[in-house]
Amino acid sequence: MRRVRACLGLATLAALAGCGGSVKHDIKVNKQDVLVAKDATREELIERFNAQAASVRSLNATVELRPVAGSRYSGFIEEYHEVKAFLLAARPENIRMIGQAPVISKTIFDMTSDGETFQVSLPTKNKFLVGKVSAERNSAKPIENLRPQHLFDALLWPQIVKGETVLSEEFNDETARYYILTVLRGGYTTEIQRKIWFNRADLSVVRLETFGPKGALLSDVHYSDWQPVGEAPAGAGTAAIAFPRTIRIDRPHDDYVIHLQVTKVALNEDLPAERFQLAQPPNSELVRVGEDKDTPAKDSKP
Fold first, then answer.
1. Residues 203 and 38 sit within 8 Å (Cβ to Cβ)
2. What is the pLDDT of residues 83-111, one digit of tens each?
């Protein structure tokens, strides 16, 4: 019976070939389109990531920002119009972003954070929000969960410090091949802190996942279109600092996504501290976020 099945199989293949059929289809890839997967050790990837993180001390950028609030899991999706925004960030944890409505260039939000507290001015609603960065608040309107610190964490990365446990692995799919570094946090139980994805075509960082306690995915950021900024520093063998032009920030537990298209960026400028100061506008309503109730404060009108 085995011989009979083998003969039948051969006969079927012969019939397909004789009738113009084929069991395969050859695709010739142009030489310039052939992908090459670069090799790197875990130590080399850590060094590469830390070098990129250390190279950016501050940024001054103009971006096109498009938020999307909600998801299929929340039962509704709100897509907002694209907003032009001016973004400042500087280590250790300062960030400020001013958003303007298209065409009329009217400020629709102004937000800042120093890593401890945040402030958000909403001129169109005549409100001024203040609160602790660590305060958790799941608003009925997901877009109100947006915090300036979320942007800082996506743009200026903390380095992998000596002593942290780091695992490495490969991952392949139909589009590309990747290396992944998984950084763990210790304590009573070991948990994932973040995952760093490198595209093996050029070893650029293309994804950064950040996790909270019990494996909660706090942030999933995708990076693409890396381009050099300015000129290469003086010295042989040095290259210009690169920065991604397209960034997608997904905050699943805050139920919003931000698409950033960087149109202009300058790195490592001296940014005075006063540029991150945001005063409450006169006659605006002061709202303290994260307290028992987000109610107007008694001193809401300075």
1. yes
2. 899 999 999 999 999 988 877 778 888 99
Provide the pairing of β-strand 94-100 with 217-229.
Answer: unpaired
Amino acid, single-letter form, for residue 291 = E
Q: In this structure, which CATH number among 1.10.1660.10, 2.50.20.10, 3.40.50.1240, 3.40.50.150 belongs to the domain 42-231+239-289?
A: 2.50.20.10
| Region for residue 186 given its phi and psi (left: phi exceeds 0; alpha: psi -120 to 50; beta: otherwise) | beta
In a 3-state reduction of DSSP, which class is residue 245?
A: strand
Please state, in angstroms and rounded to a whole number, the distance separating the CA atoms of residues 243 and 226: 5
Domain locations along the chain: 42-231+239-289
**Residue 199 exposed, middle or buried by CB count within 10 Å (0-12, 13-18, 19+):** buried
pTM of the model as a whole: 0.82
Instruction: Measure the CA–CA gap between 136 and 254, rounded to whole angstroms.
Output: 9
Instruction: Go through the chain and tell me how many residues it has.
Output: 302
Alpha-carbon span 103 to 230, nearest angstrom: 29
Nearest residue to 131 via CA among 301, 295, 298 = 295
Dump pLDDT digits (tens) for 232-280: 665 545 678 999 999 999 998 888 899 999 999 999 999 999 999 999 9
Instruction: Please give the structure tokens belonging to residue 192.
Output: 């994932």
The single residue listed with the structure tokens 């501290």 is: 273
